[in-house]
């Protein structure tokens, strides 16, 4: 009888531990008296982890804030748990589950302030409450990368919409309902077409060494950033790796030796531990994406060069659609959008303070298209935030627009357009297209204007790809200064930082395809380039127009084209060759890894961040979650009947988030 009573008491105590919940923190009453339940299982691979302390948390709503525990419990002998909690007051709250345990799932008596080295995590996200959740190494890698810019000291916190979007992106890496790799990651155009799935599984295998109690200390030391404290548990270690993926890459790979839990995996060490996903929208819309702009919700608006056709040998004309993707890569309902004079949009897509979207109609089309592009490359198209065209069927044609490329809205709502074929800039005051004015410096002062940005003072800076210079215009559009020093050579993209500096991508061998230069000529000029061109570089222009004596050079720069600045003022460069994106230390050196100075490469100097899923990239932009988006604009071998690439490539959690829409200089979200 005593044995039976003891067994009943033990069972009762175990059930209380598994189902234990915490009251709402603070004095705010719960939004609902409804009690919700979250159940799941904690595993390492297929092996259950018993005795793990499982916590359901609500992420903090500001950078550096603290997460709020909603419920706690313990996993049973089969790794199972069940938590009861009250619904959060905020319907957009991001929830996630952590499981803290010692190696092999054996908990030791907890000392004061002791931190267990193994923390497994699964993001539930906002508006998503799976009935069952699995926490394992895969879900932890997915959470650590997607939430890398919102994770500090083991706490997840950040502002909307970046936090919510990042949680959603984590589900593109891991399926939290069963702990497997997510379908988007395992299928084309990802899957075996890129290295991301193999890198993802290898990272998960690295964590199994710590879960097994063999490599925790080494993992934490290798994940630590130079000069910074080492992480104390696995989730923070993953986030630290994601934020500086080139740090100790080979040594981290060695931790996966002889581990076979997750397959397929890498066979050699990567140059950097990046995870990049390819997005295709509805699968038959992207063809030559030229640039991307993010609205206030973090959705991606993308102009396309060509009308979609999967066959590069069939001639295609200019695209007449404007794509709009969710942060997770699907079409926003109702997208893509048509009308408004869209035709062959190039490098020019921007969003103004009202949320209106502007797309510059360069008139791209494949060889053999029967249309006369010269009748179509003289306009810009305008759309409302919900995709309704405001421009007429032939586009807005005021201001002598001619083969427009770079397009940028500023904080006052002015829209600036670089007329690549017109040696001029068109300024649309306060977004009123009928008042557009053409600014032509005259002569050879600005040849093949291509990229354009606006600095912290409202001044516009435009690159002259054919005149090897950058021209500064006053906020009203008056030419003020021309900069040709600092190694400026065939400049393409240009971006400003929060300190008033301007950063220029020097294409070196890249000649802008306008004013008599055709895309076929560009293809011929670059086809035999297999190493970095001697003039490929980045130039920084200070607010007073001066430059360092020499440009910044490293082998991460390979036919530089697009350039962007993130929320920490570090610089990102898209390359039209080399299958790589480069990251440079910006002017705010305190935001760079210890020991680096302005212009030094943060990405590996010999390779940049390489990625099999990249082709010939034009644009690079940063979203509110810190994901780095690149446009696969051309195929590696660009057959001119239809040379367009068909994906956006998104590096997960790699950069400091940016408040969107981007209106010149970036602001940290």
Task: Give structural notes.
With 669 residues, the chain is an alpha+beta fold. The protein folds into two domains: 144 residues, Sandwich (Immunoglobulin-like), CATH 2.60.40; 376 residues, 6 Propeller (Neuraminidase). The chain has nine helices and 38 strands. Strands 1, 2, 5 and 8 form a four-stranded mixed beta sheet that branches. Strands 4-3-6-7 form a four-stranded antiparallel beta sheet. A four-stranded antiparallel beta sheet has the order 13-38-37-36, with no helix packed on it. It is globular.
Q: How would you state the average pLDDT, rounded?
A: 93
- Summarize the biggest pleated sheet: 4 strands, mixed
Question: Helicity, in percent?
Answer: 10-25%
User: What would you give as the CATH superfamily of the largest domain?
Assistant: TolB, C-terminal domain
Distance between the termini: 64 Å
Helical region count?
9
Contiguous uncertain segments of 5+ residues: 1-32, 107-114
What's the CATH architecture name of the largest domain? 6 Propeller
And the CATH topology of the largest domain? Neuraminidase
The whole-angstrom Rg is: 26 Å
Assembly type of the chains comes to: single chain
Shape: globular
CATH domain class name of the largest domain: Mainly Beta
- Derived structural class: alpha+beta
Reconstruct the topology from this structure:
Elements: H1 2-18, E1 35-44, E2 47-48, E3 53-58, E4 68-74, E5 80-86, E6 95-101, E7 118-125, E8 132-135, H2 137-146, E9 151-152, E10 155-156, H3 162-170, E11 174-175, E12 180-181, H4 183-186, H5 196-211, H6 216-223, H7 234-243, H8 249-254, E13 276-279, E14 289-294, E15 300-304, E16 321-325, E17 337-338, E18 345-351, E19 357-361, E20 379-383, E21 404-409, E22 415-419, E23 424-428, E24 437-439, E25 449-454, E26 460-464, E27 469-473, E28 479-483, E29 491-496, E30 502-506, H9 519-526, E31 537-541, E32 560-565, E33 571-575, E34 580-584, E35 609-610, E36 616-622, E37 628-634, E38 644-651
Parallel strand pairs: 1-8
Antiparallel strand pairs: 1-2, 1-5, 3-4, 3-6, 6-7, 9-10, 11-12, 13-38, 14-15, 15-16, 16-17, 18-19, 19-20, 21-22, 22-23, 23-24, 25-26, 26-27, 27-28, 29-30, 30-31, 32-33, 33-34, 34-35, 36-37, 37-38
Helix pairs in contact: 2-3, 2-5, 2-7, 6-7
């Amino acid at each position: 009888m005593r044995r039976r009573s003891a067994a009943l008491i033990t069972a009762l105590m175990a059930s209380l531990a598994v189902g234990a919940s915490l009251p709402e923190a603070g004095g705010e009453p719960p939004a609902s008296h409804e009690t919700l339940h979250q159940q799941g299982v904690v595993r390492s691979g297929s092996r259950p982890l018993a005795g793990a302390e499982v916590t359901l948390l609500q992420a903090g709503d500001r950078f550096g804030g603290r997460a709020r525990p909603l419920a706690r419990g313990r996993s049973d002998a089969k790794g199972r748990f069940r938590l009861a909690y009250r619904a959060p007051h905020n319907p957009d709250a991001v929830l996630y589950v952590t499981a803290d345990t010692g190696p092999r799932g054996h908990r030791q008596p907890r000392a004061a302030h002791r931190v267990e080295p193994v923390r497994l995590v699964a993001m539930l996200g906002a508006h998503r409450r799976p009935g069952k959740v699995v926490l394992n190494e895969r879900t932890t890698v997915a959470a650590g990368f997607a939430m890398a810019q919102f994770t500090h000291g083991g706490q997840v916190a950040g502002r909307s919409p970046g936090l919510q979007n990042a949680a959603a992106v984590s589900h593109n890496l891991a399926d939290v309902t069963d702990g497997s790799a997510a379908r988007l990651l395992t299928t084309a155009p990802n899957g075996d077409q890129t290295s991301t799935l193999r890198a993802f599984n290898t990272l998960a295998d690295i964590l199994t060494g710590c879960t097994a109690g063999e490599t925790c200390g080494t993992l934490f030391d290798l994940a630590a950033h130079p000069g910074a404290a080492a992480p104390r548990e696995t989730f923070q270690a993953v986030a630290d790796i994601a934020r500086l993926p080139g740090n100790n890459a080979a040594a981290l790979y060695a931790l996966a030796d002889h581990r076979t839990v997750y397959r397929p995996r890498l066979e050699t060490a990567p140059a950097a531990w990046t995870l990049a996903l390819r997005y295709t929208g509805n699968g038959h819309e992207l063809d030559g994406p030229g640039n991307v702009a993010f609205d206030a919700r973090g959705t991606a608006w993308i102009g396309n060069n060509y009308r979609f056709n999967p066959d590069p040998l069939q001639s295609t004309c200019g695209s007449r659609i404007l794509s709009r993707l969710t942060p997770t890569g699907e079409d926003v309902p109702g997208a893509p959008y048509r009308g408004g004079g869209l035709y062959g949009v190039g490098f020019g897509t921007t969003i103004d303070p009202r949320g209106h979207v502007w797309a510059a109609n360069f008139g791209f089309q494949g060889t053999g298209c029967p249309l006369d592009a010269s009748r179509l490359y003289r306009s810009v198209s305008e759309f409302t935030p919900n995709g309704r065209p405001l421009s007429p069927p032939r586009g807005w044609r005021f201001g002598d627009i001619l083969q427009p490329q770079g397009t940028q809205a500023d904080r006052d709502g002015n829209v600036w357009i670089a007329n690549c074929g017109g040696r001029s800039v068109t300024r649309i005051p306060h977004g009123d297209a009928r008042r557009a004015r053409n600014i032509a410096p005259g002569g050879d002062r600005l040849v093949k204007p291509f990229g354009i940005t606006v600095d912290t003072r409202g001044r516009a800076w435009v690159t002259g790809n054919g005149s090897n210079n950058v021209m500064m215009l006053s906020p009203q559009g008056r030419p003020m200064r021309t900069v040709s020093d600092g190694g400026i050579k065939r400049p393409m993209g240009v971006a400003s930082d929060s300190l008033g500096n301007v950063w220029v991508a020097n294409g070196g061998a890249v000649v802008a395809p306008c004013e008599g230069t055709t895309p076929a000529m560009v293809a011929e000029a670059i086809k035999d380039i297999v190493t970095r061109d001697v003039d490929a570089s980045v130039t920084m222009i200070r607010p007073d127009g001066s430059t360092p004596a020499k440009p910044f050079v490293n082998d991460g720069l390979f036919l530089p084209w697009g350039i962007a600045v993130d929320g920490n003022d570090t610089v990102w460069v898209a390359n039209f060759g080399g299958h790589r994106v480069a990251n440079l230390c910006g002017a705010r050196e305190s935001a760079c890894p210890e020991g680096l100075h302005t212009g030094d490469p943060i990405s590996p100097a010999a390779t940049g961040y390489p990625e099999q899923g990249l082709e010939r990239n034009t644009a690079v932009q940063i979203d509110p979650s810190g994901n780095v988006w690149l446009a696969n604009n051309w195929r590696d071998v660009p057959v001119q009947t239809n040379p367009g690439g068909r994906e956006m490539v998104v590096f997960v959690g790699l950069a400091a988030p940016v408040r969107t829409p981007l209106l010149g200089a970036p602001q940290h979200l």
